[in-house]
Amino acid sequence: MFDFSIITSWVHGLLTSWMPEGLAIFLECVIVGVCLLLMYAVIAIVMIFMERKVCAAFQCRLGPMRVGPWGTVQVFCDVLKMLTKEIITIRHSDRFLYNLAPYIVILASVLAFACLPVARGLEILDFNVGVFFLMAASSIGVVGILLAGWSSNNKYSLIGAMRSGAQMISYELSIGLSILTIVVLTDTMQFSEIVERQADGWFLFKGHIPALIAFVIYLIAGNAEVNRGPFDLPEAESELTAGYHTEYSGMHFGLFYVAEFVNLFIISGVAATIFLGGWMPLHIPGWEGFNTAMDYIPGFVWFFAKAFFVVWLLMWIKWTFPRLRIDQILTLEWKYLVPIGLVNLLLMVIVVVFKLHF
To answer: What are the two backbone dihedrals, phi and then psi, of residue 229, each rounded to the nearest 5 degrees?
Structure first.
C-alpha cells in the first residue's frame, strides 16, 4: 500500500532547500488549502449529479440527460447560473449575521471535510483527538443555520431554523455514541490509527454485534444530522418553502446547497472510515494471495468506493420513506436511538473487557 507521506516529505524537503522553513510551511499551507477547496468543490459537483441520477432511478425517470453526455454538463450549467444570479438583501434583516451565516456553515463543513483520511499519509488534519475535533467542528454548522433563520426576519425561516437546530443537536448525541462505541473498541481517537487497526478486518465484521448496531444507529442519525429525507422537515416544501434559507438567493443559497451535499459525503466518509476500514483494502486472515491482490488497488480508490456506497445507501433511504413529523423525529431520537446507543456502548465495553471480539 503506497504511503503518500513520502511525497509530502519530498515536497517539504524541496521547498526548504531553497527558501526559509517558515516560508516553506506557509506555502505548503496555501497549497493544501487550495487542494482542499478544489476537492470540496469537485465532491459537491459529483454529489449533486449523483443525487439526480439516483433519485431518477428510484422514481423510474431518466434524470438530466440533454446537456452533455448523460447530462454531465447540467451541474456546471447550474453552477454558472447560481454564480450569476443576483444576491438580494432582505429589508429589516440583520445584514451582518444574514451575510455571515452561509460562510459559517461552509467553514464547519470544510473543517470536518479536512479530517477525512483519504489514503495512507494523505490526511490534512490527523491528531490524537481527531474524533473530538470532527464533532466539534461539525457542530459549528448549527450556529450558521440558527443565524440564517433568525437574521432573515422571516417567521417561517425562524421556524425552519429552530426545527433544524433541535434536530441536529439531538441527533449529534447518537452520532457521538456510535463513534464512541468504535473508540472503545480501538482505544484511540485518531482516525489514521482507527484505519490501521482494521488491517486484518473491517470493524463492521470483526467488531461483533455492537459494531453492527452502532453502524445502523450512525446511518439513521447521520441522515437526520444533515437534514436529509425522511428527516428533511426543516425544508418541508409544503410548509416552509425552503426552511432556514428561504430568504437567501444567488450564491448565498448556493453555499447552503453545496454544504448540504458535502456534509452528506462527510457523514458517509466517516462511516467508511470507522466501520468499513477507510482506505484499508479488504483483507481476509489466511488468504495471503487475495490480500496481496487487494493491496494493489490504491487506498484512495477504496476510500471513495466505500464512501459513495454509503452515500448511495442514504440516498436510497431518502427516496424510499415518507417525511416524518417533528414530534416523530425527536421521539425516535430521545426514546429509542439514545437508549439503544447507551446500552450498545455498555455492551461494547463488555465485549472489549472480556475480549469477545475477533
So the answer is: -60, 145
Cross-strand partners of 119: 122
Does the N-terminal peptide bond of residue 117 adopt cis geometry, omega within 30 degrees of 0? no
Look at residue 334 and give its three-state secondary structure: helix
Helix, strand, coil share of the chain (percent; to 5): 70, 0, 25
* Cα separations in angstroms, 112 against 77, 135, 259, 310: 28, 8, 11, 17
Rounded to whole angstroms, what are the CA distances from 219 to 270, 314, 325? 11, 7, 19
What pLDDT, on a 0 to 100 scale, did the predictor assign at position 107?
92
By three-state DSSP, how is residue 119 classified?
strand
114-147 pLDDT tens trace: 999 998 888 888 888 889 999 999 889 899 999 9
Distance CA 73, CA 71 (A): 6
DSSP code for 324? P
For helices 21-58 and 299-318, what crossing angle results, to 10°?
A: 40
Give the dihedral sign, CA 267/271/272/273.
positive
Q: What angle do CA 63, 68, 70 make, to 5 degrees?
A: 40
Q: For residue range 244-285, what is the model confidence (pLDDT) as tens digits?
A: 888 888 888 888 888 889 999 999 999 999 999 888 888 887
pLDDT at 358 (0 to 100): 60
pTM of the model: 0.92
Burial category of 4 from C-beta neighbours within 10 Å (exposed 0-12, middle 13-18, buried 19 and up): middle
For the residues of 250-307, what is the DSSP string, one character each? HHHHHHHHHHHHHHHHHHHHHHHHHTS-TT-----TT-HHHHHHHHTS-HHHHHHHHH
Q: How confident is the prediction for the chain on average, in pLDDT?
A: 88
Q: For the residues of 234-251, what is the DSSP string, one character each?
A: GG-HHHHTTGGGTT--HH
Nearest to 241 by CA among 160, 322, 163: 160
Q: What is the Cα Rg of the chain in Å? A: 21
In Å, the largest CA–CA distance within the chain is: 68
